[in-house]
Specification:
With 983 residues, chain A is α+β, with helices and mostly antiparallel strands. Chain A has 20 helices and 50 strands.
């Protein structure tokens, strides 16, 4: 028989049947079911095994607070562990597996842990695995890790896509129960922009789970009507299946919308989930309340659940959790369960009420002043034993027990910014305190208003108050007529009788005894209690268990519960898939990519690309027959030295500096002087940080009296521009200077080598003379090429060769590269990438980011004299600190390998006579094989380097156990006099 | 794209390295690359910023406040900072927009060519905010026609111009990011389109 526990009524669509499997066995349910309700309908109570003792466990709740019924949902790459069956919406073909068991759910080998529970108490790990010390890493930890963990990962890449987005509203209403609906209706009718979010797929909250009337119709019908109205309003966004998971600074809320979790697999392009950032000017938290347990011996058997959940399964999902049902309560609410189940024809064998004088709500056996003291059953509940008020015991045969220890307002989101809830004696629970997240109001059960009438009214009032703070006037909704019963509760946290285990935290297997042990061993602070026992540290954050643990601790310490304290709730409210946090930023889309103007052309050439920050740059251009990158790079390097090469240098930052005070501004920015730089000239500039350390270098070209183009290194384009803006806006706002980035506006290519001028002369329009006399080294100008296209030409050299950088508007960059290749064919022009660029500059002794690494000063770089003493510039004063100018300080020098080996960059330097250990005398910052010199060379910083030319030093690479010898030489390996670049 | 180059030897390419502008339609929405937009930045110098503002205003028939896009017959202008504007025009007609502006404004302003500093996309179609809300944190409902905001979009610095609310927006991004921006926007278009389809 299928669905033998299905009752009449409910909010399921019986016209359709959905097939699903659990642990390989087939079952049926209906649209509207959750996995948990469908399993219960099929009389499946055993749904999982507990974390530590592998105890058989069944579902205890009907919502996202569920600690027990965790399953692995789906198979293959989409398998997701720790999915709560209570919120997994049933779909056709759903496949779920139980977890944390082997070989099967009914027989779990690690259930043996339960036999040793006396040894596996709180603090077990800390006490047991103390010695021998060496065993921890090699023996204990691997065994514990193997046994630990809930569920398993598919070990495959997640095939789904995830989305992110941003929403704004006047009022965010969190939770669509009676309070949330009343708040949303009130605000929506006033015209405010409203977002109503609820984690459930059916809105209405407890109205769908209770039997009660609002304005003469069923609560569920009233909710449906309210939702229909909200749906029809353009100023309202209804978000079903959306969990508001965190309240963050600046009135920002995180919310996860599940777009496709109710399908077997998302349709093409449908993002599985969307992580929303909601900017809410005001919010009303209507998250409801969570029912709490009463701990007693063996209160964890499958079939023992919350009384409210039992009622919800019956009323909303038309499911009896068992054919014979008992209730254990300390408040009136438990009686509702009995009343509703009786009405649905379920056999209620008894209501056990710990209060001496408790009223019955219907026709069922009532045991007042009684307590459940134990349960029977192995893989499922078979009965409960109770202690009557008269002292006698009685055994009730039943397959389900509903427990109600009262309700805890769901204050999680009120605590996300360190808000502390406050104790309310009337409901014996915490309610939101005064320090709420900015703009947040709390209504309904979340505020301790447990009757439907009070929830509706507080929703209305909160919305009116929230909108009033925005200057919006909202007319209060006439409060619908609804149940306004009292909530009569006498706290009972656990049943003292019996020595068996009384479970508090069902997911982490924490018992009353564990809390008492923590107290006994001195872990009395609530934070210590939490960490020592792991109470509330599971995926459910102790939604059903924390208060029980606090109550036990309070009893032990003799303090009240509020004096004992509360733990802090943190986002996310419920677990979030890592993929949702990543959103679209996955794989190669993890970050944006910038492409150079010659990218398409370089791809055609088969270039190998390298990431330089966000840029993709051509690293080298392999040709047929070249089997190793070094062959390619050597060829490209030699081609530049012998004829001409072209390299895309667009990535270097370009900052347009204009204004009457442009020169004075650069004079302040750079350590060396710029005020006298003539129009039509470039100058190398060294920029210091305020603390005197080198910040960046580059060139500035003066295109007009009031117009410069500054270049920066690729890596520092953004930071340097930001620094310049800071100086302009904050340090010298009186200067008449304007800055703007033009990095992307111009395609810029280095044309380097003895034939560079000859090649360019074929492109530059004849009216522009670029001969050595007319356009000497460090010249610059605005010219035209190829018959009138505006261009900029800079005679600057990074390679040490006769070289230019030519720039055209970026859209012509691709064509210019092709033209350079075509016109350069007669010179055997060679495109070169960043590797050859690096070799060329090391050969020339030019510093880059490897040398300007945030630790080095102008003196270290051998540029001490560039820091002008005739003017003020940023960093100049602090660059004169003793520590940065010690005569025996570091100096940039060159190194030649003496033993034929490569010199690894990063190696440390030691005097030949000293053992290569301990503090070194410096390090290699850049290294390369120089095809020009036929040997490995390097740049590096060496103490007193300038005085040690010719000395042999040890180059130690202890990471790889390498040690080489090298000779200290000038950093200028080629053309130290600069004749080539001036040719 | 028509070749605006004055030279037959070098032809222009789009930000995607193509000869024609990129155009993608998904659901009711269209993303169009607009290489036909010329751009120049104008920053008033200290002497007389008001006169620069007035001169620019005269091109679009009214003052241009920060965060506002003013649309004229030949030019669109939006404010990017205090006393700083971006001017847009038809690239096929005014590739030398920066030079024209400099000629007119002289020493009153610093003018910089930005034709290729940025790539301009237009994203349009009914209810297009459903796409944009997945990309930018702007409160789109509070962005009326003719407004401009500088924003982050998938880690990229963009300018968003509202030409018609919930209907037509320009997105400007540094040209080198064109492919990444295109990927981000078309991905969001796909998401929004499939989510708009009843399941």
């Amino acid at each position: 028989m299928t669905q033998q526990n299905r009752l009449s009524g409910g909010q399921i669509d019986r016209s359709r049947t959905l097939d699903f499997t659990f642990d390989g066995k087939s079952y049926q349910g209906h649209p509207g079911d959750t996995l948990a309700s469908a399993l219960l309908a099929n009389a499946v109570r055993l749904m999982g095994r507990s974390f530590k003792y592998h105890r058989p466990r069944g579902v205890i709740s009907a919502g996202s607070e569920e600690p027990n019924a965790l399953v692995e949902l789906r198979t293959g790459a989409r398998q997701e562990p720790n999915t709560r069956a209570t919120v997994a919406e049933l779909y056709d073909g759903l496949s779920a597996q139980s977890q944390n068991r082997w070989p099967s759910l009914a027989f779990d080998a690690l259930g043996v842990n339960d036999l040793f529970s006396n040894f596996l108490t709180a603090g077990f790990y800390y006490k047991t695995f103390m010695w021998p010390r060496a065993f921890w890493e090699k023996v204990y930890e691997p065994i514990i890790r193997h046994a630990a963990g809930l569920g398993s990962l598919s070990m495959q890449a997640d095939p789904d896509t995830y989305d992110k987005g941003f929403l704004h509203c006047d009022l965010l209403v969190i939770g669509a129960g009676p309070a949330g609906l009343a708040a949303a209706l009130t605000a929506a009718r006033s015209g405010a922009r409203v977002i109503l979010a609820d984690e459930d797929f059916t809105l209405g909250g407890r109205l769908n789970a209770e039997v009660e009337e609002i304005d003469g119709q069923s609560g569920a019908d009233w909710a449906a009507q309210a939702i229909a109205e909200l749906q029809s309003l353009a100023n309202v966004r209804l978000m079903r299946r959306t969990t508001v998971l965190g309240a963050f600074d600046h009135r920002v809320y995180g919310a996860l919308e599940r777009n496709a979790d109710h399908f077997a697999a998302p349709a093409s392009d449908l993002p599985r989930q969307t992580l929303w950032r909601i900017y809410a000017r005001q919010s009303v938290l209507c998250a409801g309340a969570t029912e709490r347990q009463i701990a007693f011996q063996n209160n964890d058997r499958p079939g023992v659940m919350m009384a409210g959940a039992l009622r919800a399964y019956a009323n909303r999902w038309a499911v009896a959790a068992g054919q014979r049902v008992a209730v254990f309560t300390n408040n009136d609410n438990g009686h509702r369960t009995a009343r509703d189940l009786v009405a649905l024809g379920v056999d209620v064998v008894g209501v056990v009420d710990s209060r001496p004088s408790a009223p019955a709500l219907g026709d069922y056996p009532l045991f007042t002043g009684a307590q459940v003291i134990n349960t029977t059953g192995k893989l499922g509940l078979t009965g409960v034993t109770l202690r009557r008020a008269d002292g006698g015991t009685e055994h009730l045969r039943c397959s389900a027990l509903g427990v109600s220890g009262g309700w805890n307002p769901d204050v999680s989101l009120t605590c996300h910014q360190r808000g502390r809830p406050v104790w309310d004696d009337h409901i014996a629970s915490f309610v939101p305190g005064g320090s709420l997240p900015q703009g947040m109001h709390v209504a309904g059960a979340a505020a301790g208003k447990f009757s439907t009438a009070a929830a509706l009214q507080s929703g209305i009032d909160s919305a009116v108050a929230a909108l009033a703070t925005l200057g919006l006037s909202a007319r209060p909704l006439p409060c619908p007529k609804a149940e306004d019963g009292a909530y009569d509760l006498v706290p009972l946290w656990y049943v003292a009788e019996g020595k068996g285990r009384k479970w508090l935290d069902l997911q982490n297997d924490v018992t009353v005894k564990d809390v008492k042990l923590a107290h006994q061993e001195g872990f009395r602070s609530v934070e210590h209690l939490k960490r020592y026992t792991t109470l509330g540290m599971a995926t459910d954050q102790g939604k059903t268990s924390n208060l029980g643990g606090l109550a036990v601790m309070a009893e032990m310490t003799g303090q009240s519960i509020p004096e004992t304290g509360t733990t802090i709730f943190r986002p996310p409210y419920t677990p979030v898939a890592m993929g949702a946090l990543a959103g679209r930023s996955a794989g190669t889309d993890f970050k944006p990519t910038r492409r150079t103007p010659s990218h398409a052309w370089a791809e055609e050439q088969g270039a190998v690309f390298v990431e330089a920050g966000l840029w993709l740059r051509a690293q080298y251009f392999p040709r047929t027959g070249e089997s190793h990158w070094r062959q390619t790079v050597d060829r490209e390097t030699l081609a530049v030295r012998s004829s001409v090469g072209v390299c895309d240098v667009t990535t270097l930052g370009k900052v347009d500096v204009q204004g009457k005070d442009a020169a004075a501004f650069l004079n302040l920015i750079y350590a060396n002087g710029f005020s006298k730089l003539p129009v039509g000239k470039c100058r190398y500039g060294l920029m210091l940080r305020e603390d005197g350390i080198a910040k960046d270098d580059g060139t500035a070209a003066r295109l007009a009296e009031d117009h410069f183009v500054v270049t920066t290194t690729t890596a520092n384009a953004g930071p340097v521009y930001r620094h310049m803006e800071f100086v302009r806006q904050c340090l010298c706002p009186e200067m008449d200077v304007q800055l703007i980035s033009t990095t992307d506006a111009w395609a810029q290519y280095a044309v380097a080598g003895p034939n560079a001028r000859k090649l360019l002369q074929k492109l530059v329009d004849p009216e522009h003379d670029i001969s050595n006399a007319a356009f000497p080294f460090m010249g610059c100008g605005e010219i035209s090429i190829c018959g009138g296209l505006r261009a900029r030409l800079f005679r600057i050299s990074f390679s040490g060769e006769l070289a230019y950088e030519i720039a055209v508007p970026t859209r012509y960059g691709d064509a210019l590269m092709r033209e350079l290749m075509a016109q350069g064919a007669e010179f055997d022009v060679t495109p070169y990438g960043t590797e050859a660029l690096g070799v060329l500059r090391i050969e020339k002794g030019h510093a880059t980011a490897n040398e300007l690494n945030g630790q080095t000063s102008a003196d270290h770089l051998g540029m001490g004299r560039m820091v002008s003493t005739k003017k003020d510039s940023i960093g100049a004063v602090l660059s004169r600190r003793d520590g940065l100018n010690a005569p025996d300080g570091l100096r940039l020098v060159g190194f030649e390998a003496l033993d034929g080996n490569d010199l690894p960059a990063g190696s440390h330097l030691y005097a030949k006579t000293a053992p290569p250990t301990g503090a070194s005398e410096g390090w290699l910052s850049s290294a390369a094989y120089s095809p020009h010199l036929g040997k490995s060379i390097a740049l590096g910083f060496l103490s007193r380097g300038q005085d040690r030319l010719g000395e042999t030093v040890t180059v130690a690479n202890p990471l790889q156990g390498q040690s080489f010898t090298a000779r200290v030489v000038s950093p200028h390996f080629i053309d130290p006099e600069g004749e080539r670049l001036r040719a | 794209m028509p070749d605006p180059s004055p030279t037959p030897r070098l032809s222009a390419r789009t930000a995607f390295g193509a000869t024609t502008a990129r155009l993608d339609s998904l659901g009711p929405w269209t993303l169009t690359e607009r290489p036909d937009r010329a751009l120049a930045s104008v920053a008033a110098r200290a002497a007389d910023p008001q006169q620069v503002a007035d001169r620019l205003a005269s091109r679009v028939g009214g003052a241009i406040a920060l965060g506002q896009l003013a649309q004229g017959d030949d030019h669109d202008i939006f404010g990017t900072a205090q006393n700083q504007w971006f001017v847009m025009a038809d690239h096929t007609q005014q590739e030398d927009l920066a030079r024209q502006l400099k000629t007119e404004l002289g020493d009153m302003a610093s003018v910089t060519e930005q034709n290729d500093g940025w790539v301009v996309f237009n994203l349009s179609g009914p209810g297009v905010c459903r796409v944009l809300e997945r990309l930018v944190m702007a409160d789109l409902a509070q962005m009326p026609d003719g407004s401009a905001q500088r924003l982050l979009l998938e880690h990229m610095n963009v300018v968003l111009l509202c030409r018609k609310h919930d209907q037509s927006y320009d997105i400007l991004v540094a040209r080198s990011f064109a492919l990444s921006l295109h990927h981000a926007v078309t991905t969001a278009m796909r998401s929004a389109a499939v989510l708009a389809t009843p399941s």
